[in-house]
Amino acid sequence: MLDPHGALICTMMLVSAADRDMAETELKIIGDIVGDLPIFRDFNQGELSAVLNDCTDLIGRDNGLDETLQAIKEALPAKLRETAYAIACDVAAADGEASQEELRVLELIRHRLEIEQLIAAGIERGAKARFQTL
């Protein structure tokens, strides 16, 4: 059973693992997000590896994607669903361009977490702007 921190981390992991290539930039951004965002202030940083392993196990099960999405939704209070989507978009944008697989997983997350389309578009545009390069 996930807690809210675990659900947020699993949301990022889903996007990172979507294309079967967990890029170093994506792993770094997950660590940066956990280290920097206020939502993770009371999260024990020493537990990050264990949570990542638990998420990997959950995702790797038969029907793992659906089970993981359901566990994420159940663990997150409604007020954190947009936060989960925003950090998932940040992971997708971290390496410069989201793959088709990552975009599909973001779509699944958006639908499962019931993020309104207009709000999702704003979150996505913000992620693109934050990770733009010259």
Can you describe this structure?
The chain has 134 residues and is mostly helical. 69% of the residues lie in helices and 0% in strands. The protein has helices at 4-17, 24-36, 48-60, 64-75, 81-93, 100-112, 117-130. It is globular and about 40 Å long. The mean pLDDT is 92.
Compressed to H and E, one letter per element, the order equals HHHHHHH
> How many E-type strands?
0
Distance between the termini: 42 Å
Shape designation? globular
- Poorly predicted ranges: none
Round the Cα radius of gyration to an integer and report it. 13 Å
Number of helices: 7
What's the overall average pLDDT, rounded?
92
Question: Strand-residue fraction?
Answer: under 5%
| Percentage of residues in helical conformation | 55-70%
Characterize the biggest β-sheet: none
**How would you classify the helix and strand content by structural class?**
mainly alpha
Helices and strands, with pairings:
Blueprint (H helix, E strand, L loop, with lengths): L3 H14 L6 H13 L11 H13 L3 H12 L5 H13 L6 H13 L4 H14 L4
Helix pairs in contact: 1-2, 1-3, 1-4, 1-5, 1-6, 2-5, 3-4, 5-6, 5-7
Concise summary:
The protein has 134 residues and is an all-alpha fold. It has helices at residues 4-17, 24-36, 48-60, 64-75, 81-93, 100-112, 117-130.
Give structural attributes.
7 helices, 69% helix
